[in-house]
Amino acid sequence: MLNIFSKILCNLPLSLVHALGCLLGCLLQLCMPNTTRIQRSNLKQSGLFSSPSQLQTAMRRNSAETGKAILETLAIWQWPQRKALQYVHECTNWHLVEKALTKGKGLIFLTPHLGCFEITSIYYAHHHPITVLFRPPKKSWLSPLIDTGRVKGQVKLAPANAQGVRMLMQALKKGEAIGILPDQIPATGEGEWADFFGKPAYTMTLAGKLAEKTDAAVIMAFGERLANGKGYKIHLSAVDSIATTTLLNQAIELQIQQKPEQYLWRYHRYKTRRHAMRKS
Predict the structure, then answer these.
(1) Judgement on whether residues 89 and 151 belong to the same structural domain of the protein
(2) What does the alpha-carbon distance between residue 9 and residue 20 come to, in Å, rounded to a whole number?
(3) Phi and psi angles of residue 123, each rounded to the nearest 5 degrees, phi first
(4) What domain range is 144 assigned to?
(5) Is the model's pTM score more than 0.90?
(6) pLDDT averaged over the chain?
(7) What is the pLDDT of residues 15-72, one digit of tens each?
(8) Which of 77, 162, 226, 248 shows the greatest Cβ crowding within 10 Å of its Cβ?
(9) Is residue 133 part of a domain?
(10) Nearest Cα to 229, choosing from 80, 9, 18, 10?
């Protein structure tokens, strides 16, 4: 059923997909009170909104953007690479990629849950190979849809396990790029507690370890969702260091501050992993 719905969405104009996404966002806010509470708490914790009215406006806008993100993802998974590229109108700071590739030590793209994070790897894979770390879905029937949807151009998927980490290392040793969602809660034993907008969050150590072992360049990538379904603008920015989880979270915060309404605030970023000792 989801596959059929995804195919329907892929044939609609992006402007209509996003309009339907706004409606979906409203429904999520009304019908999923638990995640709405998480959304409100996370937005308030960020400190980016100084008054109750600003917070309420942010809730409304963020719900709309969340709905857009869900439906556009289903559409993008069905798009051929050519169609996806037509919606990318600009990519800033591409010279950072060229500089990194010249060094030959690999490139680590960090793509938080901000804007359209599916479009960034598709755009890069049009030019060069990239291996993207992903967490297989809990519902196995979703795997074929996700796998075929994300493998476009020169994209290769690496599962979030030991085999996947080896694939990432191999790509970096060949001087290629890898992609990681740095704000995803890692498994127990694979993270450290570090402040994220002033509150301890269990944060992955993998990205920092890979950067340390390979001396790969680190670049933040953010696919800004343009208004009225016009498409996307990809922002690339260099990261000086992710040697600690604190530095990693600070880099993520700077990205989010560009377009806070497009961040996935409904994600339970401060969730406690079992057996992961909380930072005092």
Answers:
(1) yes
(2) 10
(3) -65, -45
(4) 81-262
(5) yes
(6) 94
(7) 999 999 999 999 999 999 999 999 999 999 999 998 999 999 999 999 999 999 999 9
(8) 248
(9) yes
(10) 18
pLDDT, residue 273, reads 65
198 burial type by CB count under 10 A (0-12 exposed, 13-18 middle, 19+ buried): exposed
Query: Which of 183, 222, 227 is closest to 61 using CA atoms?
Result: 227
Among 27, 51, 78, the domain boundary falls at: 78
What CA–CA distance (Å, rounded) separates 254 from 259?
A: 10
Domain-terminating residue out of 28, 59, 78: 78
Give tens-digit pLDDT for 71-121: 999 999 999 999 999 999 999 999 999 999 999 999 999 999 999 999 999
Q: What is the DSSP letter of 105?
A: S
Beta strands in 86-186 (DSSP E): 88-91, 107-110, 130-134, 155-159, 177-180
Cα separation, 53 vs 39, in Å, equals 15
The reply to whether 268 falls in a domain is no
**Distance in Å from the first CA to the final CA of the chain:** 46
